[in-house]
Amino acid sequence: MWEEDRPVVLVVCEETQRASALRAVLRDAGLYAARSPTLEAALRLITQVRVDGCVVCQPMTAEEAQRLGSALDGSRAASTKVCLAEDIKVAPPGWTLCSEADLSEAARRLFQPSIEPEDDW
């Protein structure tokens, strides 16, 4: 069942099995997860589908990070951008660095909107 307020996260990963495992982690964290095998394919997809953020698990240059970040922000202002520490040692500006082992916790914290308690009147 589709839930409109559930974030959609794009996983950019060339390795099919690794991407599947990362998508499962994101789904377990309560997110919808899609996959793009390359940065270029991700850029094309973002122009067609609104995504709330991205997890990149492959090396990228500062220019690629800036291009992808701008495209993501064009899809949704202030989108969440995560790169995995196993693939990128220093987070580009505007990106959050996270280890693969911490992705589940980070995804819940970064992608899930905070839920304010309802006021009892």
Coarse shape? globular
Structural class designation = alpha/beta
Poorly predicted parts: 114-121
Largest sheet entry? 5 strands, parallel
Q: For this entry, what is the oligomeric state of its chains?
A: single chain
Count the beta strands.
Answer: 5
What fold name stands as the CATH topology? Rossmann fold
Strand order of the largest sheet: 2-1-3-4-5
Beta-strand portion reads: 15-25%
CATH architectural group = 3-Layer(aba) Sandwich
Number of structural units classed as domains: 1
Order of helices and strands: EHEHEHEEH
What does this structure look like?
The protein has a five-stranded parallel β-sheet. The longest helix has 14 residues. Strand 3, helix 3 and strand 4 form a beta-alpha-beta unit. The C terminus is likely disordered. 36% of the residues lie in helices and 18% in strands.
